[in-house]
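From the methods appendix. Each design record in this collection lists the tokenized structure first, followed by the designed amino acid sequence. Records were kept in a plain field format so they could be parsed without special tools. The example shown here is representative of the layout used throughout.

RECORD:
FOLD TOKENS (305 positions):
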């Protein structure tokens, strides 16, 4: 039995197969319509979500399966003090596979250690968000045609943004990927990623504060929101929340084929006027999330079509 807790749980070759499967699902949805008949997905979300939870549910429904679950800790027995370990033991008798989101780093790993069904980390605190990474990789590969030889700009809250942490872990395994890390001083990438991932693997990167200084060199710009829920005080959040706003003026400095990605939800960091620009692919990215989660469910359940 396999789980997906970190983006590194799949080798580059396995990722390639998963992304190919996602592209096949996109092109031939009918072929997969009954692939998960009589299978059930549990979505255990202890934190708010729109895309991740609903795209998982859409994925399972598209595969002919069923879904059950809860959308907040308050509506589960966590509110009465039940542990994640006990909850997953029970869910193991109700479903065939489980996607879990939790505010604590490591919660999905704990769940996996007690589970009798595959567990998917749908976001654990400020740590990792591997299925968002699968979505991001599928989007970049589908629209750029490659995952190597790219200059990727990561902009915004690089300290608390788990999507950025997971994406860096995944992309450093590809040839000649360079990063431009764009953040205010207080929201710089955590030390362990700078030292143990980027420097340790000899990956080319630079850290800058001004988006305007970096945007012209990028093949893809990954915007992120400032993670309000991870701040200890509101004043700091208010001071930093609008540090970056990508608008048409800034976009005029970018390459004609630069992709603009965002895991969403967006708050204020991309002006609505940018949405109609052909380089803005963040809503397409959310759609790719369904195909890749379908591919992931099939892979973890060992179902071949
Ligand atoms: N990208 C993402 O994780 O969105 P949700 O928080 O809406 O699931």
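DESIGN:
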């Amino acid at each position: 039995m396999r789980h997906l807790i970190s983006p590194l749980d799949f080798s580059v070759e396995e990722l390639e197969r998963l992304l190919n499967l996602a592209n096949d699902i996109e092109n031939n949805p009918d072929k997969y319509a009954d692939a998960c008949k009589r299978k059930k997905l549990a979505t255990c979300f202890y934190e708010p979500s729109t895309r991740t939870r609903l795209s998982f549910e859409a994925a399972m429904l598209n595969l002919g399966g069923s879904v059950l679950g809860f959308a907040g800790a308050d509506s589960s027995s966590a509110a009465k003090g039940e542990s994640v370990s006990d909850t997953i033991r029970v869910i193991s008798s109700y479903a065939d596979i489980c996607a879990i989101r939790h505010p604590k780093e490591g919660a999905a790993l704990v769940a996996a250690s007690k589970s009798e069904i595959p567990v998917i980390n749908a976001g654990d605190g400020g740590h990792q968000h591997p299925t968002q990474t699968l979505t991001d990789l599928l989007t970049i590969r589908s629209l750029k045609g490659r995952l190597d030889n790219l200059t990727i700009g990561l902009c915004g809250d690089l300290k608390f943004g788990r999507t950025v942490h997971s994406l860096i872990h995944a992309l450093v395994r590809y040839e000649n990927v360079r990063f431009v890390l764009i953040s205010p001083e207080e929201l710089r990438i955590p030390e362990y990623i700078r030292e143990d991932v980027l420097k340790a693997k000899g990956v080319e990167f630079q850290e800058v504060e001004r988006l305007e200084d970096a945007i012209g060199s990028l093949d893809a710009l990954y915007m992120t929101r400032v993670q309000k829920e991870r701040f200890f005080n509101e004043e700091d959040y208010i001071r930093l929340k609008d540090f970056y706003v990508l608008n048409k003026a800034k976009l005029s400095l970018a390459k004609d084929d630069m992709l603009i990605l965002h895991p969403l939800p967006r708050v204020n960091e991309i002006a609505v006027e940018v949405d109609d620009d052909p380089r803005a692919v963040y809503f397409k990215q959310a759609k790719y999330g369904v195909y890749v989660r379908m591919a992931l469910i099939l892979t973890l359940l060992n179902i071949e079509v």
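APPENDIX NOTE: The mean pLDDT is 96.
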